[in-house]
Amino acid sequence: MNSPGRHFLQIPGPSNTPLPILSALAMPTIDHRGPDFGKLGAEVLSRIRNVFQTEQPVVIYPASGTGAWEAALVNTLSPGDHVLMYQTGWFASLWCKMAAKLGIEAEVMAGDWRSGVEADRIGARLAEDRAHAIKAVCVVHNETSTGVTSDIAALRRAMDAAGHPALLLVDTISSLGSVEYRHDEWGVDVTVGGSQKGLMLPPGLSFNAVSQKARTAAAKARLPRAFWEWEDMIAANARGYFPYTPATNMLQALKVALDMLDSEGLANVFTRHRRAAEATRAAVRHWGFETQCRVEAEHSPVLTAVRLPEGHSADALRAEILARSNMSLGNGLGPLNDQVFRIGHLGDFHDLMVTGTISGVEMGLAARGIPHRTGGVLAAMQSLAGNGSPVLDAAE
Amino acid sequence: MNSPGRHFLQIPGPSNTPLPILSALAMPTIDHRGPDFGKLGAEVLSRIRNVFQTEQPVVIYPASGTGAWEAALVNTLSPGDHVLMYQTGWFASLWCKMAAKLGIEAEVMAGDWRSGVEADRIGARLAEDRAHAIKAVCVVHNETSTGVTSDIAALRRAMDAAGHPALLLVDTISSLGSVEYRHDEWGVDVTVGGSQKGLMLPPGLSFNAVSQKARTAAAKARLPRAFWEWEDMIAANARGYFPYTPATNMLQALKVALDMLDSEGLANVFTRHRRAAEATRAAVRHWGFETQCRVEAEHSPVLTAVRLPEGHSADALRAEILARSNMSLGNGLGPLNDQVFRIGHLGDFHDLMVTGTISGVEMGLAARGIPHRTGGVLAAMQSLAGNGSPVLDAAE
Amino acid sequence: MNSPGRHFLQIPGPSNTPLPILSALAMPTIDHRGPDFGKLGAEVLSRIRNVFQTEQPVVIYPASGTGAWEAALVNTLSPGDHVLMYQTGWFASLWCKMAAKLGIEAEVMAGDWRSGVEADRIGARLAEDRAHAIKAVCVVHNETSTGVTSDIAALRRAMDAAGHPALLLVDTISSLGSVEYRHDEWGVDVTVGGSQKGLMLPPGLSFNAVSQKARTAAAKARLPRAFWEWEDMIAANARGYFPYTPATNMLQALKVALDMLDSEGLANVFTRHRRAAEATRAAVRHWGFETQCRVEAEHSPVLTAVRLPEGHSADALRAEILARSNMSLGNGLGPLNDQVFRIGHLGDFHDLMVTGTISGVEMGLAARGIPHRTGGVLAAMQSLAGNGSPVLDAAE
Amino acid sequence: MNSPGRHFLQIPGPSNTPLPILSALAMPTIDHRGPDFGKLGAEVLSRIRNVFQTEQPVVIYPASGTGAWEAALVNTLSPGDHVLMYQTGWFASLWCKMAAKLGIEAEVMAGDWRSGVEADRIGARLAEDRAHAIKAVCVVHNETSTGVTSDIAALRRAMDAAGHPALLLVDTISSLGSVEYRHDEWGVDVTVGGSQKGLMLPPGLSFNAVSQKARTAAAKARLPRAFWEWEDMIAANARGYFPYTPATNMLQALKVALDMLDSEGLANVFTRHRRAAEATRAAVRHWGFETQCRVEAEHSPVLTAVRLPEGHSADALRAEILARSNMSLGNGLGPLNDQVFRIGHLGDFHDLMVTGTISGVEMGLAARGIPHRTGGVLAAMQSLAGNGSPVLDAAE
Question: Do the chains contact at C23 and B26, CB–CB below 8 Å?
Fold first, then answer.
């Protein structure tokens, strides 16, 4: 479909890519062994750490996010190792399946897919594990299938309280650069990130921020690994290079993404996401729908998963909106199939993209005859107005 | 201001430029005397005629639209010639001033800046002119300062009824490619067009579609001209070339613009503009404001000029909206300064850009404390819904 | 023809456009009445002066170079005014024809098309003109049809020696930004420039740098003018804006062009052009051909016009090279038609583009069976080697 | 270094990326679960097969080429499996190291790094292996460190003659799309490819073309795998989608790359590479240097590795050329460090880029005082002239 006007890519990632980033992506590929590349590599390897709030190494893979999941596991674990994985939703469950495929014994702690990681439950489970059989705890910071953000600091406290030495592995693929995150302060051992959400790049780069404890574990971990090997990366990265051909153009674009985040200020970026999320939820409440997330403190700043009333197809609604309004929304995943649709409000956007998005949903609801209270977009506008304007506030 | 998200360029032109057009603009400049250029030139010179609905020559200038105004005058007139110019608004009055500068005696027929050309009045004036002193009638099809579109077919009928041989010169800078227009059928002698509105290009190209009668007049016209000379252009154009260096990259982009218009279909393009205009006016009415245009049949499909209540500054509102919502709106021109703001809804857009735009205005009204009835955006959405969806209709 | 590899655009302009400039051209059009534009306008209007070496106004037209020729004439002259124009070649002769079309009495001082402006001859003619009937002297700095650069400082001295008040109008369309030029120091009254040569932009912008004396003359000049009117431009430019819609995207790109020229340094840019020209001439001499320019001190740094031996078609050679090597060369213009071809070595290029170009010509000569001594490319390489490397020298 | 002119990226990959491909890369990311993506995915998955000359599945990874090496191994092998790897040079030896890291027992058959795979030797070794302990034979089609292309058809014949069931795994990372290759006809089981060489894309995509025999082996292979799992890919690919987020923008660009290859015709592309390679070798011979490859029939069409005389530093030469001529060349790898430099002549190039490249090397040799016979560039030009012109031939 080659519709007029700009496509509204309101899935919860990949997010809308700003033109300066696309423009950097389209600059010619440079020699990845030449001096200009060395400078570029050193710069982005250094500056990406700030996004993770870490002073420890961040490994950058020329691979999409699923690869960084695998990297986190194969660098730290051995065949048959026991890990505890909390199933917040679809993506957490995919990570569990991956662990199983790789020969890891994944103990899945089931969640209700409507709330975040229960730190206390994990703490209790670890406290039971006196033999320290559990080698790692794996959680998803922002569950993209449900729109729930978990409290990683609380999880850290629970693990500390249990006095358990398990590694803490956290997936931030859909939160990195959009939601506050503190790799060092929260004592995370491996943080998994991707390029195509808060970093506003296309998919194709992914990250592992790694603690010293994780590197020590890696020295003993026996899962086979080569492409994902951290230490080869870290060694070559010292001079700004990579052990094999990196995704040169993506790194050129990453530099611009970091410039844009720095220029706005990470704190302002996070505030902007929260405002958009609140406005979106105001619309959803007004329509009379439930969000998939049911814990007020855990609503995601990145996306809102909306539950449709019984008997209405979320996929038909999304198809209607795509055809009518040139806007893509996220689908319901796994058990939420066709019941839920997901509105992304992340990356490069501002208030009018939020209201445009919500108006598109509201017009779609009307067109499909799905009962709702009209005026969600006004509720969103009131929310935005009551929440100050980051632009104007910053100028004061 | 380097705000996040896409800028909403909702001035009544230049319009939002689609990425495929920008991409064509950024392809390397080619040899304007080489064979590839000859093919490109021949193609765009031929295909642009369809946009004017003409089978006669269209001259393409490597200059912005004001230049094509000058070209229309200097090719057809001699020093001291008497012309009749109807002042629909600011742009019509600028064209009058240009005529005076060029040594033409411009008789200005004043309008009220809230309605279109009065064909009957012009017909009456021409009927009086038994000596045929009036060499040309100059009107603006779509007056960008007021949001009024005039009925050119009616004007043609009035001129025919008066049996007057004056040339008919029409400015379509802000209507070309957005509003139905028929150069041949309506017997227009010179149609002036520009690249940066309905053609969705940046500014930098402009057009004269010229009738045989206009060319005959040109043969006798004595205003000095060289850069603007039609016949040099038409002669060189026969083989796809230009008498002097053309704006090569703009022509590369024009080809893509023509592809996009053809792909959507001109009739669908016009319908899309009318829908957007109706939705915008529904919002304006809901807010309780007047449009500058006060004749129902003459509302422009391209832009809506909105009158603010006394005592409120349109410029302060526009500044607020720019800072708050990263959206540019058009200002009030000349006597409408600070009383009127103009909303562009033209070129490359769709429903969500309309509702996003209107929501931005409504949030700005609230922020500035300008009394209005809230819910304009809902009125716009109802208008859009009641007007069918060109996309869906086309698919049926 | 969609040949593999980068097209070598070795015509003497438009020149090869660097990717960062194309990228800036492809950034979305901004509101030409908004605050961001005001900043951009003010910056480029100020910085462009350095390229002309002037502290006086530079008017920027949204039109290609031929328009700026017309602007120089219509702002300073009245119908029937007598001007002295030196015919260095095809482009000088086109300017003469334009003057005649505009109703100016152009006295043409014939040249031999193989050398530059004879300052003494002009001085002598002015000295004769005791009544000061001659209102302006018009010359082309770098004659693009012949590859000859004239000595403007010498012309200034000759005019001063004659004590004649005529204005000095100089076309620098093909030299600006490639060859040293000093508008203020050389006492030029109007310098005409274009975007598509040394400034490395596509065609579509042109310039008039204007002296106070020229502005004083303009106040009395009576040729009709509106689009080209300096004073409307200068007045609006004071705040960074334009009296009518400018070529927004070209101005965005001009900023980047100025950045690139500043980053390299104008003096280094000029040296780079001279090196390329010397290398090219070394090849031409080696082949056994004559350059069209026959005065050693007047060889153009921008292009080299090469004369083929009798009986060989320059156009057939160019067509062969285009088909075989994906390279465009300039044709012979006017009386030089098919006898001369022109090699552009200007704008964004370096040594390998020079040697690549020359090798392409040499392979074409061989393919067409045109007698020549092989090894021109080696002569060019020796010339480049003997001339130092600006890159390496700058680094020392 | 921000030198003027286009960088000559003459490393043996990544290759120079054509602007239409960069432009497609810079089009906004689309929804990887939406209908437009499904069409794109289906198209590129289908059309890529032609480049491999296969009708079997080609798996596309959102990862650079090294990843596809790992994929080939982990999908087909089990821990401790015995494989035979022929060490043609540096890249073959890296693949061996990877196999070892992954827990595979790699039997390395040493080569001399100056010639290709010895099919007979492999055949003999397989014939000895009556127990069929050897599960796979791994070779590199085009060894990028030495400029040697091996004869895969001969290897297939030798394996068949030995009647051995080992899988045949072939790395074509630097030959795919530049050198004739026939996955099906040659009975290859896994062909490993990458995006950044003959496909003219940036790095970031890689490929496994897989035979039915390979898929059958995969069903039993026990090396842990998840990200690299073929069957998940092949299942999702059936409808044009991927099991996890693909590198969307790279796939958009891949479509354009396939268009370009189809438009030129693969056979013409291969001929163009051979011509460039022959011309380059003509220059090297003229200079008096040896190529690293010493078997006439095995010279690579993609790159030429040049041996410098003893006592001269290849790295110092490359640095000189980079500074002086804005050209990157490949370095000597492993034992060839500083003795060899590598000239890439692949991807998007034509004759003038070849001669420009060679002239840059020759100027560098002179500048570094490395003894050589001048005139290599002339030898290259003669070679090109004697080899016909694919462009002209195709037009006949």
Answer: yes
For D20, nearest residue in chain B (alpha carbons): B27
* Chain C 332-371, residues with CB within 8 Å of chain B CB atoms: none
pLDDT at B125 over 60: yes
Residue A99 parent element (H or E): helix A90-101
CATH class of the domain at A19-262: alpha beta
Chain B neighbors (3+ CB pairs < 8 Å): A, C, D
The tens digit of pLDDT for each residue in D50-99 reads 999 999 999 999 999 999 999 999 999 999 999 999 999 999 999 999 99
- Which chains does D contact via 3+ CB–CB distances below 8 A? A, B, C
pTM of the model: 0.96
For residue C3, the model assigns a pLDDT of: 79
Supply the DSSP string of C215-281, one letter for each residue: HHHHHH--S--STT-HHHHHHHHTTT--SS---HHHHHHHHHHHHHHHHH-HHHHHHHHHHHHHHHH
**D324 in a known ligand binding site:** no
CATH of the domain spanning B8-15+265-391, picked from 3.40.50.720, 3.30.390.50, 3.90.1150.10, 3.40.50.2300: 3.90.1150.10
Chain C stretch 318-337, residues whose beta carbon is closer than 8 A to a beta carbon of chain B:
322, 328, 330-331
Cβ separation B389–A324 shorter than 8 A: yes
Give the ipTM: 0.96
What residues does each domain of chain C span?
Answer: 8-15+264-388, 21-262
Question: What separation in angstroms does the CA of B42 have from each of A116, A144, A232, B47, B61?
Answer: 63, 52, 58, 9, 15
- Angle at CA of residue C284, ends C281 and C286, nearest 5°: 110
* CA nearest to D24 within chain B: B23
Evaluate whether B346 touches B241 at the Cβ level (below 8 Å).
no
The Cα of D153 is separated from the nearest Cα of chain A by a number of Å equal to 28
At C216-256, the pLDDT tens digits run 999 999 999 999 999 999 999 999 999 999 999 999 999 99
Query: What is the distance between the alpha carbons of residues B350 and B353, in angstroms, rounded to a whole number?
Result: 6
What's the fold here for domain C8-15+264-388?
Answer: Aspartate Aminotransferase, domain 1 (3.90.1150)
Taking contacts as CB-CB distances below 8 angstroms, the residues of chain B near A352 are 5, 8, 325-327, 356-357, 359-360
Which subunits have 3 or more CB–CB pairs within 8 Å of chain C?
A: A, B, D
What's the CATH number of domain C21-262, 3.40.640.10, 3.30.43.10, 1.20.1090.10, 3.40.50.1390?
A: 3.40.640.10
Torsion of CA A253, A256, A260, A261, to 10 degrees: 70
Side chain identity at A36, as an amino acid letter?
D
- On whether any CB of chain A is under 8 Å from the CB of B392, the answer is yes
Which residues partner with D342 through β-bridges?
A: D305, D330
- Interchain proximity A23–C26, CB inside 8 Å: yes
Nearest chain A residue (CA) to D67: A227
May I ask the CATH class of domain D20-262? alpha beta
3-state secondary structure D252-301: HHHHHHHHHHHHHCHHHHHHHHHHHHHHHHHHHHHHCCEECCCCHHHECC
Per-residue pLDDT of chain A (396 residues; tens, 9 = 90+): 357 999 999 999 999 999 999 999 999 999 999 999 999 999 999 999 999 999 999 999 999 999 999 999 999 999 999 999 999 999 999 999 999 999 999 999 999 999 999 999 999 999 999 999 999 999 999 999 999 999 999 999 999 999 999 999 999 999 999 999 999 999 999 999 999 999 999 999 999 999 999 999 999 999 999 999 999 999 999 999 999 999 999 999 999 999 999 999 999 999 999 999 999 999 999 999 999 999 999 999 999 999 999 999 999 999 999 999 999 999 999 999 999 999 999 999 999 999 999 999 999 999 999 999 999 999 999 999 987 654 444 443
CATH of D8-15+265-395, one of 3.40.50.360, 3.40.50.720, 3.65.10.10, 3.90.1150.10: 3.90.1150.10
Residue B304 contacts residue B284 (beta carbons within 8 Å): yes
Does A264 contact B at CB distance below 8 Å? yes
Put simply, the answer to whether B64 touches C62 (Cβ < 8 Å) is yes
Minimum-distance CB partner of D28 among B19, B26, B27: B19
